[in-house]
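Example noted here:
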Amino acid sequence: MPLFGKKDFSKKMKKDNKEFNKQASIEEKYNLHGLLGTGAFSEVRLAESKENPDEHFAVKIIDKKALKGKEESLENEIRVLRRLAHPNIVQLLETFEDKWKVYLVMEL
């Protein structure tokens, strides 16, 4: 399922050799816990890896309905975060998508 129902977004992501994780759901890989913060279009929750319970992450959960008309902003955020590797910037590790939400798994 392409982000926001746009086929061209999936094609763009394939060009980068990085695609939304469509095979697994976020619940299959992580246990989501308490709220860390909120924003205009999203909330950030603490996540614990199911493979290694000692590993914790921040998951930004973005409501697609609230983001209507600003889809390009999310696409840009993901594109920029994937390319950045700097000790002072939180690293984007993985992305998931379902019908209603986009999940960005990041360093805690």
The radius of gyration is 13 Å. The CA atoms of residues 12 and 76 lie 11 Å apart.
